[in-house]
Amino acid sequence: MRILYLDIDTLRPDHLSSYGYHRETSPNIDAVAREGIRFNRFYASDTPCMPSRAALFTGRFGIHNGIVNHGFTASDLQVFEPLRFFNNRQSPLTQLVTLLRRLGYYTVSVSPFGERHSAWWYYDGFREMYNPGKGGMETADEVVPLALKWLETNGKDDNWFLHVNLWDPHTPYRTPMEYGNPFEDSPPPHWITEEIIKNHRELYGPHSARTTHDLRDMPEEFFQRYPRLPRSIEGLEDYKRWIDGYDTGIHYADHWAGKIFDLLKRLGVWEDTLVIISSDHGENQGELNVYGDHQLADDITHRIPLIIKGPGIKEGLVDNELHYNIDLSATLIDFLGGWDLTPQFWDAKPFTDTLKAGRPNGRPYLVLSHCVWSIQRSVRFGRWLLIETYDDGCKEILKPTMLFDIESDPHELVDLSETYPDIVKEGKVLLEKWVSENMSNSLFDEDPLIATLHNSGPYHIPTYQLMDYGDTVRKIWGEEKREKLIERHKEQYHRYLLKSYRYLEAVEFSRKYRLR
């Protein structure tokens, strides 16, 4: 059997037409979904890019593998061997791709991911690696031809695993202008309104309605280079242009994915190819005042698509059980008959019965972690999402505890934490139980999320940048907002000054903000 793993970065499932989106963004992916199983509640355990793929490839949560950040603290795999031998036995014996090799698969990757994040562990197990060379700024027309060339030569061979990584839905939206806009006459999603956008523009935060591209406004050259992007979101007209850019990126990735599918059919191996389509994380498009980024442990950032078709897979099914992305690793190895090779310390659990017989086999609840743009953990249980925020990443909209009814409010518009205190308590009990259980069987003494909180903070807006970002807030939102930002983070910043041996500044800061 052959295996194609199509990894489309930043792809939220509710913007695929096969998941019910009102725009036809993904005709080729939709056709694959009709041949196999579509998973409705499939979540990355850790986000965004590097923590998600680290979890998938190691079969372990970030709390165990050590990668929860994009830099500084907790951004490398924790080595669990007491000694370093001739080679590091951790990866050859335990990672997904190396297990596939042990099962006889020839493993190939077409992706810039390893170089983009200096994630050298990612290459473990691959026999061939093709790096398009632009560090995640590639378009599908620069990635897919490399995969097509490899398939033209090797596609008829048996027992290969090909990972193809597309980046087109990721900001900045850069689909070639000659591709046009397939959604020019299609309205944007109905949930967002002028009133919501107006409210968001009054709230500070990176990638918020006023500063959609970074922590601050971008120079004119940026918008000349990326003409699909509005400068900011001032109203629904800007939002439509913005979301058209995202959806066109999905459409472009789907268009080029279709070329891979067509080649496999021409080679006569389509029916014998296991096709897996997924992503590393979703993308907030206005939810909680984050536009075009992945900054939260919320449903939008963590929920990702999963579509699987191939020999031995039930056809035309929709699975509504809760699954982690790491469970895909366990399922794939089990489906191929290699369950006895999987390490006992994997957190991944297979849902193989779902693939083969359509039998439900999900998790009772999920705990989701994010440490890159904020520091949060959330619990997805029943119809609910409980979010606990430890560092808000300078987002004014966030509160320490938030509760959303995802079934009736999928875009997280109404916080119900004060309305349903019993549900909040239930979620907190589940979260405490999960952390306790996972730390009790950890090989390390410290939760990497807590290490990140106490040391660097989230990589993209770390503690030491607080005053710089405060200046940006003052310029855009005014002095009152800046003071509110500093007040919310004063203990954290004071601790940073002390740890940096900046004692005189720490004393002055503590006097100004009335710290002990």
Note down, in words, how this protein is organized.
The protein contains 19 helices and 15 strands. It has helices at residues 27-35, 49-58, 62-65, 90-94, 96-102, 113-116, 140-154, 194-201, 220-225, 236-266, 299-302, 326-335, 352-357, 421-440, 448-454, 466-477, 479-488, 490-499, 503-512, and strands at 2-8, 37-43, 46-47, 106-110, 128-130, 160-166, 273-278, 284-285, 291-293, 303-309, 317-324, 366-370, 375-381, 384-391, 401-405. An eight-stranded mixed beta sheet has the order 5-4-6-1-7-10-2-11, sandwiched between helices. Strands 3-12-13-14-15 form a five-stranded mixed beta sheet. A two-stranded antiparallel ribbon has the order 8-9. α7 (140-154) runs parallel beside α10 (236-266) and α16 (466-477) runs antiparallel to α17 (479-488). The longest helix has 31 residues, at 236-266. It is globular, with a radius of gyration of 23 Å. 48% of the residues are buried.
How would you sum up this structure in a few lines?
The chain is an alpha/beta fold and 516 residues long. The protein is 36% helix and 16% strand.
Topology record:
Elements: E1 2-8, H1 27-35, E2 37-43, E3 46-47, H2 49-58, H3 62-65, H4 90-94, H5 96-102, E4 106-110, H6 113-116, E5 128-130, H7 140-154, E6 160-166, H8 194-201, H9 220-225, H10 236-266, E7 273-278, E8 284-285, E9 291-293, H11 299-302, E10 303-309, E11 317-324, H12 326-335, H13 352-357, E12 366-370, E13 375-381, E14 384-391, E15 401-405, H14 421-440, H15 448-454, H16 466-477, H17 479-488, H18 490-499, H19 503-512
Parallel strand pairs: 1-6, 1-7, 2-11, 3-12, 4-5, 4-6
Antiparallel strand pairs: 2-10, 7-10, 8-9, 12-13, 13-14, 14-15
Helix pairs in contact: 2-12, 7-10, 16-17, 18-19
